Amino acid sequence: MRRLVARCAVVLALIFGAAPTLAEDGYDLWLRYHPLSAAQKADLPSSVYAEEGDATLRVAADEVTRALAAIRGEPVVRTSGAAPRAILLGTANTPRVAALKLPLASLGEEGYLLRTATVHGQPTTVIAANRPVGVLYGAFALIRRMQLGQPLSGLDIVDRPRVKLRILNHWDNLDRSVERGYSGQSIWDWWRLPDAKDPRYIDYARANASVGINGTVLNNVNAKAESLTAPYLAKAAAVADMLRPYGIKVYLSARFSAPIELGGLKTADPLDPAVRAWWKAKADEIYRTIPDFGGFLVKANSEGQPGPRDYHRTHADGANALAAAVAPHGGIVMWRAFVYAETDPEDRAKQAYTEFKPVDGKFADNVLVQVKNGAIDFQPREPFHPLFGAMPKTPMMVEFQITKEYLGFSTHLVYLGSLFAETLNADTFAKGRGSTVAKVVDGSLDGHRLSGIAGVANIGNDRNWSGSVFDQANWYAFGRFAWNPGADPQAIAAEWAGLTFTPDPAFVRPVTQMMMRSRQAAVDYMTPLGLAHLMATGHHYGPGPWVSDLSRPEWNPTYYHRAGADGIGFDRTRTGSNAVAQYAAPVARRFADPDKTGEDLLLWFHHLSWDRRMADGSTLWDTLVRRYDRGVASVDAMRGQWDALRPFVGSERWQHTASFLGVQAREARWWRDASIAYFQSVSRRPLPPGTAAPPHTLDWYKAQSFPFAPGN
Ligand code: BDP
């Protein structure tokens, strides 16, 4: 019987010319071009006009045609002549676009304009830009509108990115493992490249271009020198060829000691003439292979990586040596400020500032300093990094971690749009009120030509790319925030949900609400009230607040929470490490005062008595326990919300998400129970009335071990 049904489906498909419907597995991301209702599609154009000399214009026209045909559920005419109800796309070099005399000047290199116009007496939707890549971005913006069923009549939209370099950082290794990757193996099949070019790279490029991402670093910041050898450059070139029409440049992480490992030199001293000559020759070789190579990303003198400090040189000396090599080719260097040393007893939160602030103004023109969003390390919540606003002479990139190493991997539903916005909207007060991190990063605060945002990718070879459907939202949101750091996280969540599932407000409203609360939920059940870095050792899976025996002091959770009989929290005021002094005066004053810091960052900056009274009169200890409970309750509520949304979501994606929410609910409880068991052993306070005791002993939680946790 089942076989008969299957055969009928095939016959029907042949008759009606449609493929049998496959369950959606998430592969299509937010680029699902699903048919709209008859009413919604009534006004859609029916033809696409484009001149196709340029590869980028061609992919733009292809994408619009593909989307329009799928959304209309009817074939679309591709024309180079006059057509009724057409979409016309092109640059000022396209005569039909030029004839419209549109105001393109303000669009810059990558901006676009969408406008309803009359061409040859016909109503026409125009996508115009100065350069083909702008047309491509405009095409995706128009497609978004069509997918969401928004009207195309009377369009007059102008948009351009605020940030120049919008870059994914893949922490992908040459053996295809991914550091902190939770969605399978690397999509870069290094072994089979350059001959075998996975067509998936085109879909990767489409997805990235659709949100404006224009660069990708292919390999891990913990880099192997081999990625700079000729065979691996040929592989990177093959990827670059596929991404190029989509406006995406390829970059590589460079190992600082490559002149020794590959060049046979005795030193990698950045001021040594032979070392500089080696980098120059290497850059020349790269640009012969990849003519539009973007440049290097470097992790130096951090967590065991080699760097200029090994030769008593500054980070600027190091960055400038590589920058000089790529400068003649128009390349750039992104030099990471994520540095801390086990030999340095200074508060880890202060070390990057101490190291980098003095070299502000010493970097070459084509260097950007890439700073993690928070002062320590991608924690569920951190204050913004004190280097933002502190290095006005240097273009500063922000680096976010899209892959959720410290936020429940790919099995916890945590929407990062709210985290991105929290950092970007933070006010550094570097030049008075309104000096937000967003303005530092987009270059406007200090008038920089270069600007950039980086995101550590959460992409792998899982069918759904990101491990979970909701983690796709974090990739999406990263791109949208990189385009516009002032974006509204809620609007982006709603847009993503509408594109990924259905634009029906009865779905979008509750799901957006759920996403917007999800990050606070994770903060509550993992690291409430400004606590940080309490994850288990190495893989960072699950709780380990008791860990105190690691060789480096700042790898131990006890270093961060400092819980003792007297209280909990890290004193970063004048009586402690005085990290607050690294912030501009108004910010420093706020962070120095526990009554003004706010509960969210309280224990990041202050060591306080368990019995301290909080704003609502409860003790700190009771509040801490209640935060853990609140986190668990939020996840339970999310499960209920997702149950109610079942009618809107295809069964495979619904089921997948529901099962992951089950994992999250279990692990949120585990986090809560283990943390309370441990902190209670230190605070020796009773649990507040009505709260459940952890079901196991502290020793039981300590004994849990996960040798095969992913991403390590
Ligand atoms: C840490 C990760 C580690 C990375 C490091 C970095 O645990 O795997 O190499 O960040 O950003 O959070 O370099």
From TrEMBL:
Residues 467-690 form the Glycosyl hydrolase family 67 C-terminal domain. It catalyses: Hydrolysis of (1->2)-alpha-D-(4-O-methyl)glucuronosyl links in the main chain of hardwood xylans. Residues 1-23 form the signal peptide. Its EC number is 3.2.1.131. The keyword Hydrolase applies. The active site is at E303 (proton donor), D377 (proton acceptor), E405 (proton acceptor). Residues 146-465 form the Glycosyl hydrolase family 67 catalytic domain. GO terms for cellular component: extracellular region. GO terms for molecular function: alpha-glucuronidase activity; xylan alpha-1,2-glucuronosidase activity. Residues 29-142 form the Alpha glucuronidase N-terminal domain. Pfam families: Glyco_hydro_67C, Glyco_hydro_67M, Glyco_hydro_67N. Keywords: Carbohydrate metabolism, Glycosidase, Hydrolase, Polysaccharide degradation, Signal, Xylan degradation. InterPro entries: A-glucoronidase_C_sf, GH, Glyco_hydro_67_aGlcAse, Glyco_hydro_67_aGlcAse_N, Glyco_hydro_67_C, Glyco_hydro_67_cat, Hex-like_dom2. It comes from the Bacteria. One of its GO terms (biological process) is xylan catabolic process. Homodimer. Belongs to the glycosyl hydrolase 67 family. This is Xylan alpha-1,2-glucuronidase. It comes from Sphingomonas xinjiangensis.
